[in-house]
Amino acid sequence: MMTGSLRDAAAAMDGRLVTVEPDALFSGAAIDSRKVAAGELFFALRGTRADGHRFVADALGRGAAAAVVARARRRELGRRAPRIEVADPFAALHALTRHVRARALEHLVGVTGSAGKTTTKDLLAGMLARRFRTAASPGNLNNLYGFPLALLGIPDATQWMVAEMGMSEPGELALLSELARPDAVVLTNVRPVHLEFFGTLERIAEAKAEVFAGLEAGGTVVANADDPQVVRIAMRRLAAAGGEAVWYSLAGASPAGAELTLRVRDLECPARGLPESRFALESIAGGESVRVRLPLVGRHNVENCLAAATAAFRFGVPLAAIAEAAAAATPSAMRGVLRDSGEAQVYDDAYNSNPDAVARALVAVAELPAQRRWAVLGDMLELGPEAKVFHREAGRQAARLGFAPVVGVGELAREIAAGAAEQGGTTAWFATAAEAAEFARAEIAPGDLLLVKGSRGVGLEVVVERVLGRS
């Protein structure tokens, strides 16, 4: 983990050390006192639900090197509490992040898009690690709070950091990019996500284009040539600031006047009925080709792999090493994990959901062998006025692909059940994940394959755990 002196940290944050040895070191940072590790800096942030200043003693008791606190709150703290007093702990967190980014990290690539960010990030980090000292933002630490913690937690002498970069409102991604100052960005796709806040696909694309805010003129953009909105914003960036575009396309197409770097040939998805894909990955310019085995389900993950491979190849990782890293890939928790109950299987994709992701998951699971395939699909949140339309179409698609029963969970998911019924499918609906879990536990049978997917707020992980007999 990255280490530094508290003296330097205080200077970077325009802070004042109190009851701290100036030459003492810290390693990493935390904003939740319950998750503080020994030697970390604890930033006492004030949130909507809690004020971090109330938990300074707890953080120090767990081994924090010091607490970063607001000067205006210092009288509330014990005289002996080791601390750095600053004007604003949140601003100080960003100041320290900028300091470390400039002095302790050689390269950073940001990964953004409506879907596939986490998988692409993890694949790219694994590929880069075959040649460079590489770190990746853990989990989904991809916002203005999580990214600083991820960067401040990287190991010393890291050469490449792969950072997932997300957003939920206009302006957020620009601030994050300016904080990260990426050397390159990977744009996966633009999909109907957060429509409630952005209104149209074009506005979502404009929000994604904010990732260029911190990319210096001449920076590298790795872009999905199969997504029209990605093509539009990437081309505009190139026209305005120059730099290099590295295109990838699972369909084998490229924008006018541009060339692809790699192509996928002989795709088997799934491969011989197994929950994996196999394909040849070929360098178009050099003619070199390797066979790739990707132990992730679905064509969409082949696209994620191609995005990561294109970036890694551009940064100097050989194709053979890229193939080795792909073969070692594992899905993140609740993001397309095929789990076995002993008699049946559960495709656990319960972390989050949107219309495009549901469509891709349904197609992927429909191609896997099973006695019976059925689905528990929860509300897809933040879709705005067209939410019911999206949910009904998801139900129709599930029924068309042979999922039976199709189970909706949540108020909006009534439309999922209704859409499946329109296609003649067997359906059920439940208001809560707990009710759906009991139904699924009773319904599951040997040889079944159950898809579980919904927005995070629905909490469908309880369905997965109930079916697996763990709750």
Report on this model:
- The protein has 471 residues and is an alpha/beta fold.
- The chain is 34% helix and 21% strand.
- It is built from 16 helices and 22 strands.
- The chain has a 6-stranded parallel beta sheet, with helices on both faces. Strands 17-18-22-19-20-21 form a 6-stranded mixed beta sheet, with helices on both faces.
- A hairpin with a 4-residue loop joins strand 17 and strand 18.
- Helix 3 crosses helix 5 and helix 15 packs parallel to helix 16.
- The longest helix is centred in the first third of the chain and has 16 residues.
- The chain is globular.
- The mean pLDDT is 95.
Primary descriptors:
single chain, 471 residues, alpha/beta, six-stranded parallel β-sheet, six-stranded mixed β-sheet, globular
In short:
The chain has 471 residues and is α/β, with parallel strands linked by helices.
Largest sheet: 6 strands, parallel
* Average pLDDT over all residues: 95
Rg (C-alpha, Å): 24 Å
| Unreliable stretches | none
Beta content: 15-25%
User: So how many helices?
Assistant: 16
Overall spatial form: globular
Number of strands: 22
**Helical residues, percent:** 25-40%
> Gap between N and C termini, in Å?
36 Å
Write out the strand line-up for the largest beta sheet, numbering strands in chain order.
9-10-8-11-12-13
Topology:
Elements: E1 3-5, H1 6-12, E2 16-18, E3 25-27, E4 29-30, E5 41-43, H2 56-61, E6 66-70, E7 83-86, H3 89-104, E8 107-112, H4 117-128, E9 134-136, H5 146-152, E10 160-164, H6 172-180, E11 184-187, H7 195-198, H8 201-209, E12 220-224, H9 228-241, E13 244-248, E14 262-268, E15 277-283, E16 289-294, H10 299-314, H11 319-327, E17 337-340, E18 345-349, H12 355-366, E19 372-378, H13 387-400, E20 406-409, H14 414-422, E21 427-430, H15 433-443, E22 448-453, H16 461-467
Parallel strand pairs: 4-5, 5-6, 6-7, 8-10, 8-11, 9-10, 11-12, 12-13, 18-22, 19-20, 19-22, 20-21
Antiparallel strand pairs: 1-3, 2-7, 14-15, 15-16, 17-18
